[in-house]
UniProtKB/TrEMBL annotation, chain B:
Pfam families: BPD_transp_1 (PF00528). Keywords: Cell membrane, Membrane, Transmembrane, Transmembrane helix, Transport. Belongs to the binding-protein-dependent transport system permease family. Residues 69-281 form the ABC transmembrane type-1 domain. It comes from the Bacteria. It is a multi-pass membrane protein. The chain crosses the membrane at residues 9-31, 75-94, 106-126, 153-178, 199-220, 267-285. CDD domains: TM_PBP2. It comes from Cohnella phaseoli. This is Carbohydrate ABC transporter membrane protein 1 (CUT1 family). The lineage of its organism: Bacteria, Bacillati, Bacillota, Bacilli, Bacillales.
Amino acid sequence: MSSKGNIAFRAVSVVILAVMAVFFALPIYMAVINSFKTQKEIFSSVLAWPSSFGFDNYINVFHSIDLLKSLGNSLTVTIIGVVGMLLLGAMAGYKLSRTPGKLSGFIFFLFLSSMMIPFHVIMITLSQVAKSLHLQGSTTGLGIMYVGLSLNMVIFLYHGFVKGIPKEMEEAARMDGAGELYTFFRIILPLLKPITVTLAILNVLYIWNDFLLPLLMLTDVNKYTLILTTNSFFGQYTKDWGSILSSLVMTAVPVFAFFIAFQKWILQGIADGALKG
Amino acid sequence: MTRTIRQYAWFFAFVAPALLVFLIFIVIPMLGGMSYSFTNWNGLAKSYKFVGFVNYIEAFKDKEFIRSLMFSFKYVFLMVVLQNGIALLLALLIESRKRAKGLFRTIFFMPNLISMIIGAFMWTFIFTKLLPELAEQAAFSFLDQAWTSDPKVSFYSILIVSLWQGVGYMMIIYIAGLQGVPQDIKEAARIDGANGWQMLRSVTLPMIMHTVTICLFLTLNSAFNSFDVIFGLTGGGPARKTEVVSLNIFQEAFNYNYRFGYANAKAMILFLIILVITIVQVRVMKRREIEA
């Protein structure tokens, strides 16, 4: 390989990567530095470095909206949703995978084929169903809805994963007199850990960041998730960019913390979620 | 005999809870939506009438709905091409590097962590504050555009923000695909004197075709389901000119008219479109698997 061509390639590749890096980082960088500026500073220049790193805008946001309550609501919805779908999904995926026969096959097919129903197709009637079950307006109800909406994908991946686990382990346990529940919770569930971690991470990010379902389900400001609160704050303070941007930054901080803590698993989970299964 | 009954009992104990929530939140809404699409229900009234295909016929004459469909098609097409093209390019460039791999990967993936709607608000700041400021400099005067208020321009604004948000995810999958290409094959090609371009065309790309197919369909589905970016950036406006089909359905049902029957007919049309795409998708995947 000619070294000239190699050097030219490396130069071009660095330039492309650098330009793209600026493009990808710019909105976040802009949001962060302008969140420290006064109205006047933003008005005179958005590119300039802030004159001081005061937290006035952040304090203002804290006084206007109850971010901590919204954070708690987001946590409630996410935990109920993710734990619920993993537990129900693992149980059903395991049994469906281990049970031969027409009924089992049909139920699995039902879950599988429902995966091509886009959310927007069912959202109208879904909100009616939620209303008649009195789930509308409750964070617990919203969490349960995420369980129902994501189970097909969760069951699909557990079903595939269980196939790779040798049956001998369960048979040996049964010989020793272990019951169904003991076998599932003590033997199978620990073996499902890799796929459980993948599913947990993907669905935590999905529920935490989801906007449309909470928008349809939650009407009381006290029940708003973090995303919804930020959305309504944006609607009310359209001109006060300093406060808006600091609210955006604060909303992004928990996900970035989550990413830093679980970076390896998140990246692995995305690749596995797409390429396996 | 008791043994089989006990097996059935355990089968249902494990499967029934999942089946129940699934039936309530997906199957019933789907079947309900289908039936309501043939009625004139307005979402509030207790009574409604069966109207046959009237809603469907109206949908195909509804200029705004047709426009939103066309908008979606155009958007989906460009998203599939650009999102995969850029993601693959970035993955290849990052994988060809020895240093700073992790840094670039993190920067490109970061926007994907942020909720779409938050990202759209950050970009609103860029479009309405930063770009006008830059456009004051003569060299950047081309940036002086009505980025979010002129429908022709805001189509591209929507595209830019969607790419900013979505490219990183696909890039992660492509990187995993590239890392799966066996080293010895690349080594063999290098010994045979293949240059960089030949390596890419004849070794790397054929080896990651499976990944490319998966990514194409992932982007196809996610682009069809785009909602938040448009909602946050333009709200579908001005005058509903930047609505995608999902936003058009949402507005029909929850904002403008509360015509649930009619909105459900539109939703079923969307479903049929996705159904056709999915059938094609499954066929193509099956064929590829046989070839591989």
